[in-house]
Amino acid sequence: MGSTFSGLNTALTSLYAQRRGLDVTGQNIANASTEGYTRQRVRMVANNGGLNPGVYSTTDQVGAGVKVASLERGRSGYLEERGRTEHGNAAYLANQTAAYSQIEDVFAEPSDTAIQARMHDMWDAWNDVANNWQDPSTRSSLIERATTVATSLNDAQASLSNQFTANGNEMSTYADQVNTLATNIAKMNQIVVAKQANLQPNEMMDDRDRAVMQLAELAGATTIEQPNGALNVFLGQGPLVAGFTARQVKVVGPPTLDGISATSQVGLQWTDTGGAVAAGGAMGSMIDTMNTVIPNITAQLDKVAQKLADTVNVQHRGGYSADGTTDLDFFTGEVDATVVTAKSIKVAVSDPAQVAFSSQNPISSDPNVAGSINHDVADKLTDIGASGTGPDQTYQQMIGQLGVAAQASGRRSDIQNSVRDQVDTDRTAESGVNLDEEMTNLLTYQRGYEAASRVLTTVDSMLDQLINRTGLVGR
User: Fold this and answer.
1) At residue 177, what are phi and psi to the nearest 5 degrees?
2) pTM of the model as a whole
3) 144 vs 129: CA distance, rounded Å
């Protein structure tokens, strides 16, 4: 038969369980606004009564009360991993969009002070020379405007180079952050020890999840949770954190834009093995920007500079200047006019008297020639601006391609941000604290505690009646 005293234990277990529920509910309410906090729930299970049969004994005991089996975190492993993936993708596209925006700011097209407008000014200056070649001021103005075009190309290349260097410096900072986060996650995997000791490291698991999310945004990290509670973290297919061990990464590659080539590129590398790290997130975007986006734009800008030099020089070499000079290059590079880049282009002519404008020598000894000087070379150079195959067209194609790429990146980023926000909404619905729900739980546990207290008082009163107030009849 069940003992009356067992009622005391049943009520006592309920007091413990309801009090635990009150404690956990209070913790949830206290952290309702804490970023990254995961709501906790008390999972209660009924204690079984006596289940071991005896030869001369039976029991009608209905149970032995209640106990707290565990404190569960309101997290979905699937949603968390999906969230890390979407955050990593969003960080990649946001960084790409920012990179394109900076490049567009370099060229600032359309604008009255941008390269396109300055090339138009230069072609107009050639027209002024054609109309009034006898006036040295027109040729001086031409040299000044051509120098402005060359300087604008120089400045654009320098800005792209500075953007490359800034990305490299930021990459190094991000690599340090990745290493620090990996070390911290490895330390927080001591959660395994806590679980083995039947402790509840839920808050530490929240801290670990926040660190992993940062890694996902920085480098596209993914995870695999182990049965013992440890969280292994991967960059690409390579393990960054395995149990209590963390690996380190470093940035490798040329420190300047001039060093980038097909065989020499920027990347992430494992410090222990020297193998390449397949990074995503913001760092993956920066690697692509430094290895592909900026070098491609620079190469196209070099084509504009080369096209400009070749087109002008071929006409200028065949013409005569006011002092009779011929076979002179108008634009040149670091060494000569054969190889001209946006970084090296400059005006080779400094004396207005050496600006070629005619196919006839103005100081020819032949009076028939000297008396009928034309300005056909200047006319041909004037027409280059409107040519469909000139440097202006090459530059416009470059700006058009840049605009399309920037717009596509921006749209993809907006779409990805919507996907990320939707996943975050689902994650918050799963793991966030709902104050209305917590208030309901608070009342439930409060009433449960009061009821268990009443049971305890009632059983105590019954036992008091039985033990202290029951006497022998007729004695």
Assistant:
1) -65, -40
2) 0.87
3) 13
